[in-house]
Amino acid sequence: MAVLQAFLIALCIIVSHQNLVDAKFSKSMYITWGTQHATIQGNGGEDLNLVLDPFSGSAVQSKRGFLFGSIEMLIKLVSGNSAGTVTAYYLSSTGTKHDEIDFEFLGNISGQPYIVHTNVYTQGNGSKEQQFYLWFDPTADFHNYTIHWNPTEIVWYIDSLPIRVFQNYENQGIAYPNKQGMRVYSSLWNADNWATRGGLVKIDWTSAPFMARFRNFRARACKWNGDISISQCGTTSRANWWTSPIYSQLSSAKRGQLQWVRDSFMIYDYCKDTKRFNGQIPAECFIQQF
């Protein structure tokens, strides 16, 4: 049995390379705003720098959309006094009924930890925020941030450690993002009306320009080609490696890592915010997520 399982895992890895998008920033992304504040350069087009100053922030997006798979990027966040700034890395469709899966990094004054803000939107509805302190200095070096998304669950990873899971409970009337292709977005922008201590701490523009650096964008994901992709990308098959049973639920070891992160570093969970929802906690909060 162990040999068979190892073979199947290896097969999934081999097949996954067939879904690897040529994801260098220079080939797979383009600058959408702040063209004078964003550069794609160096390392064969693998490096992206986004800049924020008093005049503008900057942003990029992928040229194509995806439905299911694994999206990852190395990011080195704004150093020093980053209060009021937000570095965003997320997947999103478009329109008022859009789906979205978020990583947002909320800056802070020097010496205070960064906050990782996560959220998921389905059919235009979000309000599913969970926030964590980072357990390392994200400005000293690059770290891997991965969104793994399949028909069963969404998992947010930092350096291969899972920090959050959102399970598909569509059969219980809970919406799940599985019918819209999403593009990949990254941006650095002024959010000092809310990002740091609820907007009490503003950006210190004397510290500008602020820079976030990105590297090694990889999309091992199903390319979105319209509604036909809903079945093509969601059908269980060898080619659709993300549908393998080994990705339907975290292993016991990964669940242990997830619990450690949540016990040690979670600072906000919408499921526990009874005042916000007037006691009407969302239904998914009462169902096991991992």
UniProtKB/TrEMBL annotation:
SUPFAM superfamilies: Concanavalin A-like lectins/glucanases (SSF49899). It is found in: Secreted, Cell wall; Secreted, Extracellular space, Apoplast. The active site is at E100, E104. GO terms for molecular function: hydrolase activity, hydrolyzing O-glycosyl compounds; xyloglucan:xyloglucosyl transferase activity. Gene3D superfamilies: 2.60.120.200. Residues 1-23 form the signal peptide. Keywords: Apoplast, Cell wall, Cell wall biogenesis/degradation, Disulfide bond, Glycoprotein, Glycosidase, Hydrolase, Secreted, Signal, Transferase. Glycans are attached at N108. Contains at least one intrachain disulfide bond essential for its enzymatic activity. One of its GO terms (biological process) is cell wall biogenesis. One of its GO terms (cellular component) is apoplast. PANTHER family: XYLOGLUCAN ENDOTRANSGLUCOSYLASE/HYDROLASE PROTEIN 8-RELATED. Residues 1-214 form the GH16 domain. Its EC number is 2.4.1.207. This is Xyloglucan endotransglucosylase/hydrolase. Catalyzes xyloglucan endohydrolysis (XEH) and/or endotransglycosylation (XET). Cleaves and religates xyloglucan polymers, an essential constituent of the primary cell wall, and thereby participates in cell wall construction of growing tissues. Belongs to the glycosyl hydrolase 16 family.
